[in-house]
Design goal:
The chain has 298 residues and is of the alpha/beta class. The chain folds into 2 domains: 173 residues, no CATH class; 101 residues, no CATH class. Helices cover 34% and strands 18% of the residues. Helix 2 links the parallel strand 2 and strand 3. Bound molecules: iron/sulfur cluster (SF4).
Length: 298
């Protein structure tokens, strides 16, 4: 298969699969395998409005019927059955997947909004485990990808405790070092301090992954002072007992709703990763794909 076709597969993060409402497959560049997404926000609800988000919220419907854990269970069951039987790999566009990548890697709460907004999250988590049990799956990761704003809520704590018992991982977003930049990039009313404290307390209970997005916004990469402040936040988390297993520094890889967002250069991302490693944390950079049709000069 041509490299360009693999890149297109990696870049295609459609949250639609057949007639499913919640469950969708994604070929993941990070895991080099298939990730099954659980989109608990088909209504696109989020308490952030990140400038780099790829979700168009203009069609937001307040009348959305919400999350049905039983339907999540059924959709996941069907998809796993198709993957097991091989039927999945004959369906477009996954029929183009190279054989080395035809492996199931994880199930991830990730979709068109913040998954922890869903109060039925613990029930959904249990339904996923029911399906794993049915398919005799014992060691597949369940990843909660979150903006960390609600990690202190009882229904989220209950979910985290469930994930701790079943190969769960938390990937928490930290996009800034200062309140000002955080508000500019993530466009939210949630105080930055709450995000930091939630990451700290969650990371004291179990190892976590930090995901940080670096972009050029209105033509400008994050200023050096902002990078310094960001590194100080990571250091503060680490010094205070937050177990950061990995920092994923990435940039935009897909079209965004705001048209003034561009990826930072590979050099910028690599230099940030070097600085993170200098404070004793493991870090990985995820640059924009080489064929990204964007101005990559800065
Ligand atoms: S937190 Fe995620 S879903 Fe919400 S606006 Fe930001 S990128 Fe989009």
């Amino acid at each position: 298969m041509k490299t360009g076709q693999v890149h297109l597969l990696f870049r295609s993060h459609s949250r639609h699969w057949e007639s499913n409402r919640f469950v969708y497959p994604v070929l993941s560049r990070r895991s080099q395998g298939l990730s099954i997404g659980i989109n608990l926000n088909p209504d696109t609800r989020c308490n952030f409005d990140c400038v780099y988000c790829s979700v168009d919220r203009s069609a937001y419907k307040d009348s959305d019927p919400g999350v049905d854990p039983e339907l999540v269970r059924m959709e996941l069951r069907e998809l796993l059955r198709d993957v097991r039987s091989g039927r999945f790999w004959t369906s477009h566009p996954f029929d183009h997947t190279p054989s080395l990548l035809r492996r199931l890697n994880d199930v991830a709460f990730s979709g068109n909004g913040e998954p922890t907004i869903c109060r039925r999250l613990p029930v959904v988590c249990q339904r996923i485990l029911d399906v794993f049990h049915e398919f005799s799956i014992q060691d597949m990761k369940i990843i909660l990808i979150t903006n960390a704003t609600l990690l202190h809520k009882p229904h989220v704590i209950e979910t985290l405790e469930c994930l701790d018992r079943h190969h769960g991982e938390v990937w928490a977003k930290l996009d800034a070092g200062t309140e000002l930049y955080y508000r500019m990039i993530d466009r939210t009313r949630v105080p930055f301090e709450r995000v930091l404290n939630n990451i700290l307390y969650t990371g004291r209970q179990r190892p976590i992954v930090i995901q940080s997005m670096f972009i050029r916004w209105n033509g400008q990469p994050p200023p050096p002072s902002e990078i310094e402040a960001y590194l100080q936040r990571l250091k503060w988390l680490n010094d205070n007992g937050c177990r950061i297993r990995l920092v994923q520094a990435y940039t935009v890889a897909r079209p965004t709703v705001c048209d003034t967002v561009l990826p930072v250069s590979d050099q910028t991302l690599d230099s940030i990763v070097d600085r993170i490693r200098q404070i004793g944390l493991d870090a990985q950079s995820y640059p924009a794909p080489a064929d990204q049709p964007m101005d990559r000069s800065v």
